[in-house]
Amino acid sequence: MGEVELSCRAYVKMYLHCCLFPRCSINGLLLSSSTTGDAVCVTDCVPLLHSHLSLAPITQLALTQVDVWCSQTQQRIVGYYQANACVSDSSPTPCALKIADKISEQFENAVLLMLDGSKMSADYRVPPIVMYERKDSRWMLKDKHTVMLRQWEETRAIAGQMLESGDHSLLVDFDSHLDDITKDWTNQKLNNKIAELASPANGSM
User: What is the pTM of this model?
Assistant: First the structure.
């Protein structure tokens, strides 16, 4: 597998998902609107759960609905992200490995991204992520030099600004949608807010 690039939108939404449920394990799906060659560009994410991460029926329902939506919007599921409730633990759980395995069956260059809760402060100088790739039927740590987040300073500033202004409350994960189906798990309102704050220099949101 080659390089993996994270967009501003994808990172900010993962960050806000963690901040909205600070004492919970959270997870979600990584999406791409362009996959060329071995490189993977994660252009968006869908926040899934903040409780009962290992509950298979809900996960399967979410995967199916997101897959249908992706086919309608020229996107595909290219990976999985998770943050553990214990902030000092950023290692993949059996649940994370199982869902990532399922995604890799459909997309061979799938990635597994763990958020490091101990480094999630807005002023942290490098992206608080640990990424894994599948090699020889096992998930292995990916070389950090092949993981890119362009315009990191701007992305970090946007994430911090949105948290400070309370915009993280706009985020809807699939869990919240199941509680109130009028809530939009595709997060169009939040996407628009991120796009408003990002400068043209940031390219693809």
Answer: 0.93
